[in-house]
């Protein structure tokens, strides 16, 4: 099989590429240049797609003895991931850019080019498993990335490979060291890759500008003014610009955001509880939607808790009734449905949250 190995320069994608070589496939490595002005060096675990990352990926490819290329996807990444991220926050939503990158870059734009060039599959270092075309959680639950892959269609998964999903992360690092790969102890990337400073509010503010509004309590009383709803997300407790806790002495949290009026509402922790979700643009990783209501577990954050639920497709939207409350769910987040089983939780599908109540 002819395989394109997406090599970020990290340990996971490096071992993934090595395992595909070991399996006897015809492997070519590719590093995605996602920034038009990549930094020279990483700052610890912050940032990605730097010149250092590209060089690390090239050195691994040399060790493996495979061809290596750098493909420029910077414009596509800006349009489909960064601009989407900014506009979503401007609407008062809370997006996950890793989900969008997998959906629109790695398994859409990249895979489309790979297939056009005659490759059979794209291999990545994601922690997830494929079994008979079904997407499942990784063996290492702490590193599991099935959540950010749940937006992939059955056709996209048919041309995907996740070679490290059956192995715990410490063993992946040990394997990289045995193979003589210099990235064996390289820190994992954290936070949002295109905001290496970690200051999301400043990043958004520089692109959205000042859009003044108010912070109000449950009764509508104005508590503070702000420079834009992009500085807030549902469930946020710090940085609200208000004098202190509520009349009951307890912390206050962002409970609702109205981007049109610029209103940020705050309330108690109990006000964050939701029991029902509506998801738009559903994707079912096995291809077909389940028939009727399905018992499942729902996850709304990349490494968040799951709760039991009943989900059903109603007029092209996912209607999800939770059996236990989730706290602090925001429009724009991705909801992922899992079918718990003895083999490690199969992904049923996903949707973008439009409403939570």
Automatic annotation (TrEMBL):
The record marks 126, 333 as: Interaction with tRNA. SUPFAM superfamilies: Adenine nucleotide alpha hydrolases-like. GO terms for molecular function: ATP binding; methyltransferase activity; tRNA binding; tRNA-uridine 2-sulfurtransferase activity. It comes from the Bacteria. The keyword Protein transport does not apply. The keyword RNA-binding applies. Its EC number is 2.8.1.13. It is an enzyme of class 2 (transferase). This is tRNA-specific 2-thiouridylase MnmA. The gene is mnmA.
């Amino acid at each position: 099989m002819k395989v394109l190995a997406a090599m970020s320069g990290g340990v996971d994608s490096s071992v993934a590429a090595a395992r595909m070589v070991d399996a006897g496939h015809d492997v070519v490595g590719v590093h995605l240049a996602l920034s038009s002005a990549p930094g020279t060096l990483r700052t610890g675990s912050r940032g990605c797609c730097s010149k250092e990352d590209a060089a690390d990926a090239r050195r691994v490819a040399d060790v493996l003895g495979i061809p290596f290329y750098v493909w420029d996807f910077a414009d596509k990444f800006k349009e489909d991931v960064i601009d989407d991220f900014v506009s979503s926050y401007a609407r008062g939503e809370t997006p996950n850019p890793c989900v969008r990158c997998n959906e629109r870059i790695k398994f859409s734009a990249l895979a489309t080019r790979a297939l056009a060039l005659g490759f059979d599959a794209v291999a990545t270092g994601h922690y997830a498993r494929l079994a008979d075309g079904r997407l499942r959680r990784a063996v290492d639950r702490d590193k599991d990335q099935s959540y950010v892959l749940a937006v992939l269609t059955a056709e996209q998964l048919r041309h995907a490979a996740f070679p490290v999903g059956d192995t715990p992360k410490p063993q992946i690092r040990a394997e990289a060291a045995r193979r003589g790969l210099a990235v064996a102890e390289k820190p994992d990337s954290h936070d949002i890759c295109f905001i290496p400073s970690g200051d999301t509010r400043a990043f958004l503010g520089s692109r959205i500008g000042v859009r003044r509004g108010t912070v109000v309590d449950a009764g509508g009383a104005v508590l503070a003014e702000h420079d834009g709803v992009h500085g807030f997300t549902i469930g946020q407790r710090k940085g609200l610009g208000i004098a202190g806790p509520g009349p009951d002495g307890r912390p206050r949290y962002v409970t609702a955001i109205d981007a049109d009026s610029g209103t940020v509402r705050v309330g108690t922790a109990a006000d964050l509880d939701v029991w029902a979700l509506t998801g738009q643009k559903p994707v079912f990783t096995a291809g077909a939607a389940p028939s009727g209501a399905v018992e499942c577990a729902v996850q709304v954050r990349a490494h968040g808790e799951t709760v039991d639920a009943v989900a059903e497709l109603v007029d092209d939207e996912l209607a999800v009734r939770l059996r236990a409350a989730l706290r602090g769910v925001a429009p724009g987040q991705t909801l992922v449905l899992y079918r718990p089983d003895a083999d490690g939780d199969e992904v049923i599908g996903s949707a973008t949250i439009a409403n939570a109540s």
